[in-house]
Each structure stands twice: as structure tokens, then as C-alpha cells.
Amino acid sequence: MTPGEELLFLALGGSGEIGMNVNLYGCRGKWLMADLGLTFADPDYPGIDLVLPDLEFIEQRRKDLVGIVLTHGHEDHIGALPYLAADLKVPLYATPFTAGLIAGKLEEEGLTGQVELVVIDRGGSIELDPFKITFYPIVHSIPEGNGLLIETPFGNVFHTGDWKIDEKPVLGVPTSAEAFRAVGDAGVLALVCDSTNTFQETPSGSESSVHDGLLAEVEKARGRVLVTTFASNAARLETLGRIAVETGRRLAVAGRSLDRIIRVAKATGYLTDFPDTVRFDEAMLLPRDELMIIATGGQGEPRAALGRIAFDSHELKLAEGDTVIFSSKQIPGNEMAIGRIMNALADKAVLMVTERQAHVHVSGHPGRPELKAMYEWIRPDILVPVHGESRHMREQARFGLECGIPRAIVQHNGDVVRLAPDGPKRVDQVRTGRLVLDGDVILPADGSTLNERRKIAFNGTISVALAVGRDGRLAGDPVVRGLGVPIEADRDDFIADAADAAAKAWSPSGDLDKRREAVRLAVRRCATLWTGKKPVVEVMVVEMQAAGSGR
What we know:
It is globular, with a radius of gyration of 28 Å. 30% of the residues lie in helices and 24% in strands. By secondary structure, the protein is an alpha/beta fold. The strands form five sheets. An eight-stranded mixed β-sheet has the order 8-7-6-3-2-1-21-22. A seven-stranded mixed β-sheet has the order 9-10-11-12-13-19-20. The protein has a five-stranded parallel β-sheet with strand order 15-16-14-17-18, with helices on both faces. Helix 4 crosses helix 8 and helix 15 runs antiparallel to helix 16.
């Protein structure tokens, strides 16, 4: 898997899923990485918050990796850097705002100075032989989104990153049709393109259009107003800051990620007019109609600010007649978590507004009209959809062909695709996977620890302790304890039955492991008869010594 006289593409994350983006380009013995993101855990990962890509493939070839280029600062594009970048031992390249976010993450993990971070001017270029990479400003829901023009001896690739078309962005510069047409004029072999909103028939809309909808809702509110949005959407924060001033409300900000985004944005020339904020204790002393809160947690995260406010475990409080505005899109999979918080707010008689009731949010990803415009600007020979589930990528491939792109290929994580010469062609498949951050330890997502935890979560666990004399016979009744086993009111009867099953299954002689296994199976059979479940059963044997033996 050393690239020869060819141009290869390989996704280690982000193809067949939304999140955890990691893309590799291979040419003349070298690899270039674009983005290194993470995703957030779902109930399949008990006790886990963060899921990371397994980089085994490129870690084994890190001497051939020339660098990591970052398109923008969202967690699904940079979030894994503090946990995995140090092992790769290559420089990171990012524009100032993204670099500021990365620097903060590295500092939190004690990696400042251990990972080289190179700041690239917006529109700047770098040469990492055999690749030349130029950063093209592109609008997204975070400052300094970048598309990457990757020039190689076998053709040019335009890697969009996350993007949309916005002629009136609140922060940054508008999407430049002229700049992208110039890229297309120079010739583009492949367009590697965001697929998130490929089913959306309308454009995503301008960030500036959200102002009037949000202003109207805040003006209607009679009590405290809380607006929850994606912390990284600095343009939305700019809008909300202006609305606070326009409506005469003081501003409180709740959430560490919001504090970080605001700090980095100000340091890199954004949010320069953002109003001063008030402390939480000061906020609670203000008249109710003079306070606006911006808070994290709109996706239902229980430990984020909104969740804690909803359940009265935060210094900031809401009550009857207050208003919460969800200035964000509900991410699929978060419906139950968001509903839980909404129900808690409803119990307080708090009014709620979502994008379904008012124009309070626009997406940061391209709908079909925007995709079509990009195709016409770039005019690639090959379309490679990424950043989507299978249905999104297949639909974009179909749509791209319909729009006149000559060739398209739908790949998934681990597919090695030759783009040139004679591409696109799937030429190999490499192992990919997921890692989890469990406390301070990184583990395989399908390893023994998580598998055991899933079994315990689903079936419960039973421990059996046996005291055994020198003759191998039981020196007392087995001690049985159950956790998470559905026995409730019958617990005492079940414990007695399980202890009896353990005693009958124990043999005083023979191989210890086989005798222990016989007890384990007997107790599990007993539990299955009682509950229909197959709990995890652990058997401990304690060998007793005779009195006066000195042991």
C-alpha cells in the first residue's frame, strides 16, 4: 500500500457516516491527510462520550505522511487531534481561527510544543512534495471554512470540506464564483464533496437572513430569553449579540465551548463588537425582560448548560413565561435527548420556539441548487461524495451524473480508490474502525471492555463466591450477589435458588477452571429460567486453610 505513480483516495472516517472525517490522498510514495475529526457516542457505547477513528493504517506508514491539513474547526474535522496527532508526528496546517481552536485543544491535553502547528494565511498555499495545497475561503457555519485545491502530478483535486453558498455572510467573505471558476478553468480531475444536504431541494439560505426571525422572537418575549445554538457558529453569536443590543437586553453566556469560541474569535479578528457579558449571579438579579442567555446544549446533551438549566442544576434559572429559542437543526439521533429537555422546560411552562415555528436557523451545508452551482464552477471529471451516510453519498453521485459530471464513485471508509491513471477504480480495501475515549484511556470500540460493558448493561451481572476447604468441598453456602438482574421483589428467593444451583454444580475434584465454569453455567441457567436474560456471571473460589497452618 505504498502509492506508486498514481493518485489514490482513502477515507478512514466520514464516508458512510456523518462525523469523524479523515481523508487520505496518496501519490508517489507519500500520503497527505485532510482533517482528523471525531464523533459523539450513542447508547451503543455505554459510559463513552467521544468516538475516534482508528488510524492503524496510516500509523504504520507515518514515515510516508507529509502532513495534516485542516479545512475548518468543527469537532468532526479537528476533534481527534489532541488524542491522535502526537503519534503521527507530522505538522498540522490550518488558517488562524482554526489554528486558535486547535492550539487550545493541544494546551488542554498538555501537548503544546509537542505537535507542530503551522498557521496558514487565508488563501495561502503550502508545498508538501508531491502535493501543493491551496486554501480557498468557503462559507460554512463557522469562521474560516476552507476548500482545498490539491495539485498533484496526476491531476488536481478540489476537496470542498463543509460548505454552502452565502452571498451575504455575517462573518467572513462571500462565496466567490469567480475564484472557483478559475479553479475549474485550470482543470480538476476530482471533486471530493460534502453530501450532507443532498436531498434538500432548496438552497441552505444566508446566515444574514436569520437576524429578522430571531429579532422578532426576542421582541415578542416577555420574560427571560435563552437562545441555544451550535457553539461554533460564531456568525450566529454575532447576530445574537446585535439582537441583545437592539432589544436592550444584557447578555449572559453559558457553556465552556461558547467561551472558547468567543475567545478565539476575538483573538483572530471576529466578534469585535460582541457586547460585554454579565456574570450568572448578576444575571439573576436583572429584571426578567432585560436578560438574554446564549447557552450550549440544543442537541439534548445532559451535561451542557441548557440541560442543567432545564433540570435546575445551574446557576441560571428559567420559569413560567420565559422563552427558549432553539436556533439550530435537530441532528438525527438526538430526538429523544432533545425531547427530554423540552419536556422539562414545558413542565416549567417555558415557551419554546424551533426552526419549525420561525426562521431562526439556516444550515451550513449545500442543498441541491448549491451542489449544481459547484459542479458548474469546478467541472470535474470525477465526483467523489463524502461526508454523508450511504444514502446521501449515493444520491449525490446520481445527482452529479445527472448534472453532467462524466464519472462518479461511491466509496466507504477503507476503500482505496485510484483516481488516476485510469480512474476512478476501487483497487483495495484496508481495515478501518473506531476507538473510544473511556476516561483517560483510548480503547477499541469493539474490544473486550466495551463488549463486556454492553453485556452487563443489557443482561446485568451476578457474582458467586465459593469458600472451599482443603478437601475441595464447600466450606459454607455460596454467596451470590446480583446487579442489574431483573428480579426485584423475588430477589431473596432467586438468590437462594442460584446459591443452591452453584452448590450442586461444584465438584470437589478435577480441573479448577472446569469446576468454576460448571458453576458459572449453572447459575446463568438459573437466572435465565427466572428472568429470560443471560447475565454475566463471575465465579470466585477462595481456598480455606486449616487452623494453625500459619497461612
